[in-house]
Amino acid sequence: MLDRDELPDAPEHRRGVPQDRHAHLLMPGGLEAIERLLPRADVRKDLLAAGARELALSSGMLALTPDGWFRRWRHHSHVTITCSRPLLEWVVRRAVLGTNANVEVHRARVTGLRGSARRVLGVTVEPCADAGSDAPFPAGHCGHRPADGRPAALDADWVVDASGRGTRVVPWLEALGIHGIAAKDVDSGLANATRVYRTPSGAQEWPLTLIQPDPYSGRPGRSGMIVPIENDRWMVSLGGMRGSEPPSDPDAFLEYALALPSPLVGRLIAAAEPLTEVFTSHSTSNSRRYLDKVRHWPDRFVALGDAAATFNPLYGQGMSVAALGALALAEALADGGLDTPGLARGVQRAAARSVEAAWTTAVSTDVLYPGVEGGTPTAADRLTAAYSRRLTRTATGSYVAASALWDVTTLRTGPARLMRPGAILAALAGPPLPPLSGPPLTDRERAILSAIG
C-alpha cells in the first residue's frame, strides 16, 4: 500500500484527510462491509474498546427533520458507530496490518499509471518531498528508479486507486488512451464548521443529536449535530449552504447554533468546555466520475471510494460507500481470481451500485437548495422530493416508515427499498401518531438539559 502521509502510530489527524476534523458516522452498511472484509479481526469490538460509541438510530438519536421530530422507539435497530475519523482509521489500519502479514505500507506519491488501455501494469511513484531521498519502496518490485529524481516505475499485479477527492484518475486514464469519461459535479455550497467540547458532567450517554437542514423552504439550509466521540467528548458540527455558511469565530459559532430551527444544540454547548478551535471546510461537493460507463476499461485496475465519487458529507455515506466498494473487489477476486477476463470492469460496475444509491440520496436533495451549482431540479427530482418528504413526515410517527428511510440512508439497502408496498402504504396513510411538540427527551435527559441551563 502506498500513501503520501506519514501514517501515525496513534489516532492522530493527518494532512491527507482534510475532512478528518469534522463529524463522521460509520453506517451499518459500512460496518457490515468492513467486518466481512476483515473476518479475522473484530473491528466493532476494537472500536468500542478504544472509546467509540454505538448508537441505535431508532432509539439513541434526537433528530429534527423539516417536518418534525423523529420519535424514539423501543426497537434497537440501525446501529451506527460514532467516533473521530482518526480513531476509526487507526483501528481499521491495525486490523488490516494485524491480520494480513503480506500487507506493507510505504510512503510515496503516485504520479501516474503504467500500461495501456487494455491493462494496467503498475504505477509511477516518487518520494514525498519531506520524506528524504531514502524513502522506502517495496523491495524487489521497482522496475526502474532513476537517480535524477524522476518518478520510479513500480510493477503491480493489481492497482486500486483509493486516493480520495484529490484523485487524478481521469488524466491518468487519458494518458493510457482512455478518453470520454463523463463526470458531474453538484455543489450546494455547504460549508462545515466543527468544534470539539468536553462532554458536560452527567451527559456521557447523551444521544446523537441532529438538526437537519430544510431543502423545501427556498432559503439556504442550516444544520447542526452533536456526535459523541471517544474520551468523553462531543464533536459539534454546524453546516450551512451557500449564503448561510457557519462562522469560525467561537462566539458567532454558538450564536449560529442557537439560531437553528431548534436551539437544542446551542443550549447544550453553551456551558460546555471547548477543547479546540473552530475548524472549517468547504470541500463538500458531490462529484462523480462515471467510470462504470467507460466503453473500454483496462484490466487489473479499479478506482474506489472518493476516487470514483464524492458526496456531500452532510449525509454521512462516504466511508460506507468506500467499504462497500472494497467488498465488491474482494468478493470478485475470491470468485474469479486475477486472470478472469473483464474482472476489473465487473468490479467497477459492482462498486457503482452503492455509489448510485448514495448519489441519488445526496443529489436529489442538494439540487433543491438555492444557489446550487451544477444541477437544477428535474421533474423526476421534484417527484422524488415530494415522495421523500411525505415519507419523512410519516416517519416522524411511524416506525415502519422510519425503518425504510434508515435502511436506505445507512446503505443497508438501495433506494428501491422505498418503493416496496409497506413503505408506499405507510407514506399514503401518513403518520399514525401526532407530531411531537419538542425533542423526545427522557426524564434524565430533561434533567441534564435543565441543569445545563
From TrEMBL:
Q: Which residues form the FAD-binding domain?
A: 147-334
Q: Which Pfam families match?
A: FAD_binding_3
Q: Which InterPro entries match?
A: FAD-bd, FAD/NAD-bd_sf
- Please list every transmembrane segment annotated in the UniProt record, as residue ranges: none
Q: Give the Gene Ontology MF terms in alphabetical order.
A: FAD binding
Q: What is this protein called?
A: FAD-binding domain-containing protein
| Originating organism | Streptomyces lucensis JCM 4490
Per the UniProt record, the lineage of the source organism begins with: Bacteria, Bacillati, Actinomycetota, Actinomycetes, Kitasatosporales
